[in-house]
Amino acid sequence: MSQIHAQYLQEMGITQWELSHPERLAGYQTELVKLPETCQLLLVSPEKPQGALAEMFERVLKSIKLELSQAQYVHPSELSHFDLSSPQWVWFAGCESDTDITAKMLQSPLLSQIDGNNQQRRALWQQICSYE
């Protein structure tokens, strides 16, 4: 950490700690968070579906015979904390997939870019149909 950052932290009254033996943490991994058994689709996106986007998201779910209660949302920055072995589908909307996933995977632009764009909706539908 730079000297300037350390000075800012000190001025804000934030105690700064430094590991004396960081090598002791080598290989340490936190336990992954298990998704609920009801989760059949995990949406990974920087944009959480709300309002009209939530309605569009629900229509897509219905097209693959899932209910809104069977879906979960996670921000891409939090994805590495989750065990991805249980959901049937993982949908990356507006972000890249950088993990090895055994589930059916969908890749699309942000939901806001799909809503009202027939070409993007068709491309998403073609991905869904490729798994049937």
UniProtKB/TrEMBL annotation:
A single BP term in Gene Ontology: DNA replication
Top-rank taxon: Bacteria
Keyword Transcription regulation: no
Keywords, comma-separated and alphabetical: DNA replication, DNA-directed DNA polymerase, Nucleotidyltransferase, Transferase
GO molecular function: 3'-5' exonuclease activity; DNA-directed DNA polymerase activity
SUPFAM superfamilies on file: DNA polymerase III psi subunit (SSF102220)
Pfam families found in the cross-reference section: DNA_III_psi
Function comment: Part of the beta sliding clamp loading complex, which hydrolyzes ATP to load the beta clamp onto primed DNA to form the DNA replication pre-initiation complex. DNA polymerase III is a complex, multichain enzyme responsible for most of the replicative synthesis in bacteria. This DNA polymerase also exhibits 3' to 5' exonuclease activity.
Stored NCBIfam families: PRK06100.1
Name the UniProt record assigns to this protein: DNA polymerase III subunit psi
Species assigned in the record: Vibrio fortis
Upper lineage: Bacteria, Pseudomonadati, Pseudomonadota, Gammaproteobacteria, Vibrionales
